């Protein structure tokens, strides 16, 4: 799993306009190390689509100009909105109702207790879009099981949400067999009928190509890393600590800052930050593990950088500066709680959780302050960072859907992809004013009903280009966005960035044990030599053959970069 991800946390696709009354749940920002899906519908079920073939399929990009952000997007990072927009000043991005009044059944993961289907929020959305949606919300924790069963059946819902981390087993081939080609409605200039979808970045659409066809509405995501080393800025100031600027400085500081008798440790498990510090290829998608280096296709587990990152993290554990609960491997979701409690002073977490921690602590500790420090390189210089995939949640339409149902689905997605600062965004993100939220001091504040009803669902069927909008804590918005912009300046793309790849089944589970071995090595339960032996075994059992398969794929289709 990604750092500090909790199985029960909802992987939200929208950086919600913050409420001063309700603290957000900590969000899991990544996915387990699973392969994605691609290939050709006729014949081969493996591979990917890029280059000229993809260019024929992809929608034309038309940037949205409806609302200008306070901080423009930069270097693969999101745009930022630091101020609230008064209701009277909200713009319109969908001037006419595009839905036909038809009906759609949509299956989606849901974390928590799903609301009743006849609630005011659903009713208002249906009326505004012109499509009557019946949500078939399923438990997000066991969604992969339900998804597999539904796709194996002959009768599937009109539309289905598929998180990238559920693309395993027979699900990828079922996608190619069960879901419609959206190209006839979206490819090229056809997407201009849906202006909010036209503003979705091309890189995200590239990830929506499955089986050689544009099948998915993707969730756009920043390509720059969202795993940030977060630190207690208030405690650093109190103690007179300087922010470390190299691995050696960090270890030296960590030894000074740790006081086990007072139940204060310097950090939590820093493995994911270590991967960034030492320039390890990203781990959210196995296709990104491969990259051309000096004319040879290399997997991340074969690199010196990979071993160096594990060795540095191992030194932290060995020095006793890591919180004991992280040593014992307790649930990663507790890392943020240990951090806000002041038991650990640094942890690596999804940067989108910054607002949740600050808003929660604002009512408890008036002097609480946190920030993200910049990632440094192995020698204290500039880092070499690698881009993550620009989309990792997808929504598909059944092949059995009528042409009108597909158009109604696209009307729904276009509405939900409305940018911040629009009437459509406010309804999608906050629901009905006076019922789901009230305006207080110029900010929307959720009611209890809004908390229970306005989450998940419509958020999975359309999202604008990546953005952050927390006007109640503008410094948090600024901190998140500017950190990602700074890190984006050092971010490169591996050879398979932006591509949705299906590995042949015979090698699909080849690397499954690496993550557990990584954790064992950094905690001292295994040695670096054990990892080296595992890599040698991986190569002999199929890794070298898989390399040749990826190399041919690259030669045949080219990179999407």
From TrEMBL:
The name this protein goes by in its record: Lipoprotein
Species whose genome carries this gene: Streptomyces capitiformicae
Family: Belongs to the bacterial solute-binding protein 1 family.
Cited InterPro entries: Bact_solute-bd_prot1, SBP, TAT_signal
Major location category of this protein: other
Keywords, ordered alphabetically: Lipoprotein, Signal, Transport
Listed Pfam families: SBP_bac_8
SUPFAM superfamilies, A to Z: Periplasmic binding protein-like II (SSF53850)
Cellular compartment(s): Cell envelope
GO cellular component, one term: cell envelope
Origin: domain of life: Bacteria
Classification via PROSITE patterns: TAT (PS51318)
């Amino acid at each position: 799993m990604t750092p500090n991800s909790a199985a029960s946390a909802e992987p939200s696709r929208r950086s919600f306009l913050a409420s001063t009354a309700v603290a957000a749940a900590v969000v899991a920002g990544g996915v387990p190390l699973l392969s994605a899906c691609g290939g050709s519908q006729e014949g081969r079920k493996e591979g990917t689509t890029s280059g000229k073939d993809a260019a024929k399929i992809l929608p034309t990009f038309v940037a949205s100009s409806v609302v200008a952000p306070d901080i423009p997007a930069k270097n693969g990072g999101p745009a930022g909105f630091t101020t609230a927009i008064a209701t009277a000043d909200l713009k319109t991005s969908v001037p006419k109702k595009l839905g036909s009044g038809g009906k759609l059944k949509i299956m989606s993961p849901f974390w928590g207790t799903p609301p009743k289907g006849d609630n005011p929020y659903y009713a208002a959305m249906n009326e505004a879009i012109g499509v009557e949606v019946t949500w078939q919300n399923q438990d997000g924790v066991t969604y992969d099981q339900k998804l597999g069963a539904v796709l194996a059946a002959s009768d599937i819902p009109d539309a289905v949400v598929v998180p990238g981390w559920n693309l395993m087993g027979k699900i990828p081939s079922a996608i190619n067999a069960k879901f419609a080609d959206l190209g006839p409605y979206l490819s090229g200039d056809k997407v201009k009928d849906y202006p909010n979808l036209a503003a979705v970045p091309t890189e995200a659409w590239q990830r929506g190509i499955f089986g050689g066809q544009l099948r998915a509405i993707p969730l756009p995501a920043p390509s720059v890393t969202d795993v940030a080393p977060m630190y207690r800025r208030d405690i650093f100031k109190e103690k007179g600590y300087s922010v470390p600027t190299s691995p050696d400085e960090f270890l030296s500081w960590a030894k000074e800052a740790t006081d086990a008798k007072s139940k204060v440790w310097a950090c939590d498990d820093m493995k994911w930050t270590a991967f960034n510090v030492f320039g390890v290829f990203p781990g959210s998608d196995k296709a990104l593990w491969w990259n051309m280096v000096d004319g040879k296709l290399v997997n991340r587990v074969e690199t010196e950088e990979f071993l160096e990152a594990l060795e540095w993290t191992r030194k932290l554990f060995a020095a006793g500066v890591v919180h004991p609960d992280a040593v014992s491997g307790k649930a990663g979701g507790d890392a943020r709680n240990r951090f806000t409690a002041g038991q650990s002073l640094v942890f690596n977490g999804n940067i989108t959780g910054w607002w949740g921690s600050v808003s929660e602590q604002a009512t408890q500790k008036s002097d609480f302050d946190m920030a993200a420090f910049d990632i440094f390189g192995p020698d204290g210089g500039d880092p070499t960072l690698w881009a993550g995939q620009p989309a990792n949640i997808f929504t598909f339409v059944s092949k059995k859907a009528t042409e009108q149902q597909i158009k109604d689905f696209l009307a729904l997605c276009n509405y939900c992809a409305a940018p911040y600062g629009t009437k459509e965004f406010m309804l999608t993100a906050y629901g009905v004013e006076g019922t789901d939220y009230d305006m207080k001091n110029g900010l929307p504040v959720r009611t209890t009903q809004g908390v229970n009803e306005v989450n998940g669902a419509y958020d999975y069927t359309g999202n604008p280009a990546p953005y952050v909008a927390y006007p109640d804590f503008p410094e948090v918005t600024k901190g998140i966005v500017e950190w990602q912009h700074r890190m984006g300046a050092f971010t490169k793309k591996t050879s398979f960035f932006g591509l949705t790849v299906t590995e042949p089944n015979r090698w699909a589970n080849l690397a499954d044990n690496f993550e557990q071995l990584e954790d064992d090595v950094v905690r001292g339960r295994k040695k670096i030599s054990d990892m080296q032996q595992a890599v040698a075994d991986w190569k002999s059992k199929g890794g070298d053959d898989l390399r040749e398969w990826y190399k041919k794929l690259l030669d045949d289709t080219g990179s999407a970069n």
